[in-house]
Design brief:
two-stranded antiparallel ribbon; 1 helix; binds zinc ion
Length: about 140
């Protein structure tokens, strides 16, 4: 149980799959959160939490402009607006895959040979988060 402050990990541009796995575990444990905030028909993905590599806190927010669902924009013509509410189409929102690059804002040393500390924040890790834009906690509907 040592409480020594750790020096920041050196900057390394890596997209090893283990970081994606680590991010997944962080999502499960709640140390990392990914959500979609929608307003005015513009959805934004917000990923916030600890970086799986350098364990610094970061926030990544980006608009989901590229997500154009081919589900037919028939939102205005919802039939049976007085009937049962079980007609909710499964998979109305396709899963969103986000490629996140660490943006913790903490300068990481770029190694002994590289004096260029232009890496303004972030340890260089990239990982992937699959964001199921589902409003249920786990989507476990029987
Ligand atoms: Zn960091
Ligand atoms: Zn990082």
């Amino acid at each position: 149980m040592t409480q020594q402050p750790q020096p920041p990990v050196p900057y390394e541009q890596t997209s090893d799959y283990r970081w994606t796995e680590a991010a997944f575990h962080l999502l499960e444990s709640g140390s990392l959160t990914a959500s979609v905030a929608a307003s005015d028909n513009i959805s934004s993905a917000v990923v916030e939490g600890v970086c799986p590599r350098c364990v610094h806190h970061f926030t990544d927010r980006r608009p989901l402009t590229a997500v154009t669902n081919g589900l037919g924009g028939s939102r205005a013509g919802v039939p049976g607006s007085g009937g049962t509410a079980l007609v909710e189409p499964a998979g109305a929102y396709p899963p969103v895959v986000l490629d996140i690059t660490c943006s913790c804002g903490v300068p990481h040393p770029t190694g002994p040979g590289a004096a260029d500390a232009s890496a303004a924040g972030g340890c260089g890790v990239s990982f992937r988060i699959e964001l199921a834009a589902d409003h249920g906690p786990l989507g476990g509907r029987p």
